[in-house]
Every structure is written in structure tokens, then in C-alpha cells.
Inverse folding.
């Protein structure tokens, strides 16, 4: 326990004692109450808490990744978000000038075959307005550009005639210029990769990237990326968000979902293979469950890297041929099984194996130690779940006997009807129900697979934007997990992050939020109370016990 944690826990306790004191004074006026608390601390009832008990669950939801932990500042960098049919919506890109001076439309002329859409910009003015005409990107609700910091621009351009482009970081109204550079594009029929470093001479948290010119003619753009230079270990993660995660000391990282893994339809599910290799060549995809586009710069490789950077065991949740609305029949599941085996070779294979070599080429010759996989997400009730599950289970067991496999079916109240090393247990509910669920695992059979409580939270009005009531209920629930930690091996709160601009699709609120306000694009880390203060749930629960339960138990 570090000094910072001790002090925040101490402050928290002092505050609580102060509140309790006030409450006691107040209640003494009404009536005096007595409570007896029996604590059984005998060694016989002690259970060792597994090393793996507390970890994190990262889902691409609420812009947790795109516009969140992934530091890319340009939104829709490849112009693919509007779909493959052109002209397409280029949102949030927009033009500088008007349609009599600049004509902008997507076409299918990219040099990248898997993301073929590019942007064609035709400058129509002979005598363009001062400052020029062009395009701009506001990022994810504004780019946080900071004084003295460097930003790496990469873009692909093509222009039949030699032309000068001015690339700038400006305030959202374009009036404040924070960094600027001029790029000369030599006239050619080929695409050219441009790389430039921009150093900001001022701060504006809602900045934009703009590309302008004064010269009449046509220029194509594609894969326009702007990354801050100081990402965590140069791995592309926002440093201040990573440090919040490091403070949690997570023992595992479950990724990348959640429903994000399933998709509303299979065609929109997360595909690991499309999310690896050079970022420029990744097609990106529309996550139809949480309704936004990701360019998949934060892909399968980056998730594995994130786990390594956090010192957490990676838990890869893969699609098992099931989405919310369609399913692959077990008779036709073989290619999906092979796809998952390839993903495991990508992670664990030697640098000279087929997929291990792709990983090595991306900069990580050493394997990533994937020891856990989850076969689907929340799919137990689906017709073909067991059929598909067994196909994946048997193939993985054979190829990687040490990998622990997680079933979607709840084994807490009755034995599973299929083999598994662990089973998922998810709960989102009101505070009273979760509070009462502290005894859920008391009577669970000790002989079956272990529980992975991989998503839990108090939600809706009890959670709001964080509440002590919800925190207490979650702490009480966690005491039940600690008490039964001989059969509960892992637990993670959900969701982990929410972008303040995209709360609409989630009903849950975390119980304690740490706001990372260094951007116009504000991210909040959602953690349950005891995790934030690094005290045991039992301790938090004990401290809070006398102040709140009346509300809960009532
Ligand atoms: C940032 O830009 C906005 C206009 O988009 C302006 O109102 C604001 O004052 C600027 N902030 C700073 C710190 O200069
Ligand atoms: C910052 O840099 C921009 C672009 O080079 C320039 O236009 C602006 O005057 C500079 N601002 C300050 C305060 O130096
Ligand atoms: C365009 O690229 C092709 C293939 O890389 C090359 O052969 C050709 O010389 C290039 N043309 C120009 C004008 O640079």
C-alpha cells in the first residue's frame, strides 16, 4: 500500500468518522440505539484470497478506447466511418471555406485495399481567402493540445500538381493558432506518406487539426493521424489514464468486451485479425451495440500490450459465432474455431510461427502469456451455445492444455452441464439487491469450476453519477466474494471508463469516479469505492456499516 493510498484511505475514514459523528449526535437527539457485531476471526473460517481476485474489465463502450485510453486525436482518420458507399458522411470532418471555394467528397481511390475510401478535396478559388480553404477535424469532442507538447502527424496525400499544404492545430473557431507547419506535396500520381512533428506554443483543450491551402487544384487525403508524442511507453495509451489504472494494481485485464465482442450482428463483431498489423491498413469497424465507429488502432495486439504494461494477466474474450441477433450453426463453426486458434498463435506462438511472426513484426518477438480465454459473452441462453462452446473448448484444450477456459453459463447455483475451468457471473442491479447478494456464493458447490465475477455494478438511479449507497452495496457484495474466495477466483467492476460526452447508452454509473480532466474530452474511471481507496471491501463495509444499512435494509 503506497503512501498516496494510505492518505486517501485515511482522509476517507476521517470524513466518514466525522459524518458518523454528526449522525450520532443527530440520532442521539431522537433515540439511542445499540448494535452488536459478532466477528468470527478464527483461522478455520479463513480463506486465502487468490492473487487474481481483483482485476479490470475493459470494454470499448462509451468511447472508453476511441477518444479514451487510445491517444489518437483524429476521429475517423481514414474517412471510413461513413461506410464504403461514396459519397459518404465524413463526420466529424468539416470544411474551412464554403462550397463555392472548396468541394470535398469521398471516393474509393485509397492506396489501402482494406479501407479503400479516401477524401478528395478540390480547391475552386483562384483568389482564395486569407488563411486558405481546406478541411478540419475536431477529434473526439475537441483535441487537448497542450503548451510545449509535441504531436506526431502522419497522413497520406496525393496531388497531381505540386502544392503547399498548411497543417495547423488551432482552437475550435480557428482563431487561436497553436502550431503550424507547411508541407510541400510534389505533383505525382502516387500516394505519399507525410510525417511531421508539431509542437504547440499554447494550450487549448478543445482544439482541432486543420489542413488548408491557397492553391487551386485537387488533393486527396487518407489515414490522417495525430498522436501525442508522450503516450505510455510509446505504446499509444494516454499516460494519465494508464497511471489511474496502474494505481488499481489490476491482476488481470479482461478485453475487449462485453457485447462489443458479440455485435448486434456478427458482421459488426470485433475481429482480431482485422485489428492487427500496420494501423493504416486496418479497416476499422462500426460497433453496432454501442453505436460508434472505431478505426481499431486499439486492436488485439494493443490490448495484449496494455495487459503487459499493467502487469495484468490478459483474458481474451472471443466471439464464439454468436451475436445478439444471428448465430453460426455448430456444423459451420470450424472456421471460427480456426480463427481463434490463430489468435492464440498470434499471442503465444514463437516468433517464427505463422502468426507469431506477425506479432514479432509488430515489435513484440516475445509471446504474450495468454492463460485465460472466455468463450463468448453472455451467450449461455443461446440455442447453439453449448454446441459451439464444445468445439472451441476441445480444440483449445488440445492445442493449449494450460489455457483456462471460461464458460458464459452461471454455475453458482447448479453444476454446469459442460466442462469449464471458470464461469462468468454478471450482475447489474439496484443497491438493495446487490447488498443482499453478498451470500450468493455461500452455498455454491466447492467441486465445480470457479467463478469469474467479470461484470458487476449497482446501476440506474441508485448509482446515478456515483453514490455512497451504491458503493456500500458493492462493498457488501465483494465481502461475499472475499468470503468465498476459495471458489471465486476473479472479479471486475464494469464499465471501467466512460467518456463524459458519451454516457447516453449506458445506464450504470460508477460509484466513485476519478475524472481525468486534462482534456476537453473528459474521461472518467469508474471503480467501486473500496478499490479506489485500496482498502479491503470488508474494511470499507465495516466502516460504513453503522451509517447506512438502515437505508438498505429497510
Ligand atoms: C480555446 O478556444 C476557445 C474557442 O474555441 C476559446 O473560447 C477559449 O478561450 C480558448 N481557451 C484558451 C485557454 O485559450
Ligand atoms: C504559435 O505558433 C503559431 C503557428 O506558428 C503562430 O501563428 C502564433 O503566433 C504562435 N503564438 C505564440 C503566442 O507564439
Ligand atoms: C508510382 O509508384 C510506382 C510503384 O511504386 C512507381 O513504379 C512509379 O515510378 C511511381 N510514380 C511516380 C511518378 O513517382
Amino acid at each position: 500500500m503506497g503512501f498516496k493510498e494510505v492518505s486517501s484511505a485515511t482522509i476517507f475514514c476521517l470524513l466518514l468518522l466525522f459524518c458518523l459523528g454528526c449522525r450520532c449526535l443527530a440520532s442521539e437527539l431522537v433515540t439511542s440505539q445499540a448494535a452488536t457485531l459478532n466477528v468470527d476471526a478464527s483461522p478455520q473460517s479463513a480463506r486465502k484470497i487468490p492473487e487474481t481476485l481483483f482485476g479490470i474489465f475493459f470494454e470499448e463502450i462509451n468511447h472508453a478506447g476511441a477518444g479514451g485510453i487510445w491517444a489518437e486525436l483524429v476521429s475517423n482518420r481514414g474517412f471510413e466511418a461513413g461506410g464504403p458507399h461514396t459519397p459518404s458522411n465524413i463526420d466529424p470532418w468539416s470544411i474551412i471555406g464554403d462550397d463555392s471555394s472548396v468541394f470535398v467528397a469521398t471516393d474509393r481511390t485509397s492506396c489501402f485495399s482494406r479501407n479503400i475510401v479516401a477524401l478528395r478535396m478540390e480547391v475552386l478559388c483562384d483568389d482564395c481567402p486569407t488563411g486558405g480553404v481546406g478541411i478540419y477535424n475536431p477529434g473526439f469532442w475537441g483535441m487537448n493540445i497542450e503548451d510545449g507538447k509535441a504531436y506526431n502527424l502522419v497522413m497520406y496525400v496525393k496531388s497531381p500538381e505540386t502544392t503547399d499544404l498548411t497543417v495547423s492545430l488551432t482552437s475550435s473557431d480557428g482563431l487561436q493558432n497553436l502550431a503550424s507547419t507547411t508541407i510541400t506535396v510534389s505533383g505525382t500520381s502516387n500516394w505519399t506518406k507525410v510525417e511531421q512533428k508539431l509542437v504547440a506554443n499554447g494550450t487549448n483543450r478543445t482544439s482541432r487539426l486543420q489542413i488548408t491551402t491557397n492553391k487551386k487544384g485537387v488533393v486527396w487525403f487518407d489515414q490522417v493521424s495525430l498522436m501525442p508524442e508522450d503516450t505510455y511507453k510509446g505504446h499509444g495509451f494516454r499516460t494519465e489514464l494508464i497511471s489511474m489504472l496502474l494505481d488499481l494494481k489490476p491482476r488481470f485485464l479482461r478485453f475487449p468486451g462485453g457485447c462489443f465482442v458479440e455485435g448486434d450482428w456478427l458482421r459488426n463483431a470485433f475481429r482480431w485479425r482485422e485489428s492487427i498489423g500496420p494501423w493504416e491498413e486496418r479497416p476499422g469497424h462500426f460497433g453496432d451495440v454501442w453505436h460508434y465507429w472505431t478505426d481499431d488502432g486499439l486492436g488485439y495486439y494493443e490490448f495484449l500490450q496494455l495487459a503487459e504494461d499493467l502487469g495484468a494477466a490478459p483474458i481474451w474474450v472471443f466471439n464464439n459465432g454468436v451475436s445478439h441477433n444471428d448465430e453460426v450453426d455448430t456444423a459451420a463453426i470450424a472456421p471460427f474455431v480456426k480463427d481463434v486458434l490463430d489468435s492464440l498463435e498470434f499471442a503465444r506462438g514463437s516468433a517464427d510461427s505463422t502468426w507469431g511472426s506477425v506479432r514479432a513484426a509488430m515489435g513484440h518477438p516475445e509471446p504474450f502469456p495468454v492463460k485465460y480465454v472466455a468463450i463468448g459473452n453472455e451467450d449461455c441462453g443461446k440455442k447453439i451455445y453449448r454446441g459451439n462452446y464444445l468445439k472451441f473448448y476441445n480444440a483449445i484444450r488440445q492445442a493449449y492444455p494450460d489455457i483456462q477456459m471460461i464458460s458464459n453459463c452461471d454455475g453458482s447455483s447448479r453444476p454446469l452441464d459442460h466442462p469449464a475451468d471458470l464461469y462468468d457471473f454478471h450482475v447489474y442491479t439496484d443497491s438493495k439487491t446487490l447488498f443482499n447478494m453478498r451470500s450468493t456464493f455461500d452455498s455454491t458447490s466447492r467441486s465445480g469450476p470457479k467463478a469469474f465475477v467479470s461484470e458487476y455494478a449497482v446501476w440506474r438511479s441508485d448509482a446515478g453519477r456515483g453514490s455512497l449507497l451504491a458503493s456500500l452495496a458493492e462493498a457488501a457484495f465483494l465481502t461475499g466474494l472475499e468470503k468465498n474466495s476459495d471458489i471465486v477466483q476473479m472479479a471486475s467492476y464494469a464499465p471501467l471508463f466512460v467518456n463524459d460526452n458519451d454516457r447516453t447508452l449506458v445506464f450504470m454509473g460508477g460509484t466513485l469516479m476519478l475524472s481525468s480532466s486534462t482534456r476537453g474530452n473528459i474521461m472518467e474511471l469508474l471503480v467501486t469505492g473500496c478499490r479506489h481507496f485500496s482498502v479491503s471491501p470488508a474494511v470499507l463495509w465495516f466502516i460504513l456499516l453503522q451509517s447506512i444499512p438502515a437505508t438498505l435494509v429497510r
Summary: DSSP finds twelve helices and 24 strands in the chain. The pocket of 2-acetamido-2-deoxy-beta-D-glucopyranose (ligand 1) is lined by residues 171-173, 176, 203-204, 206 (CB under 6 Å). The longest strand covers residues 217-228.
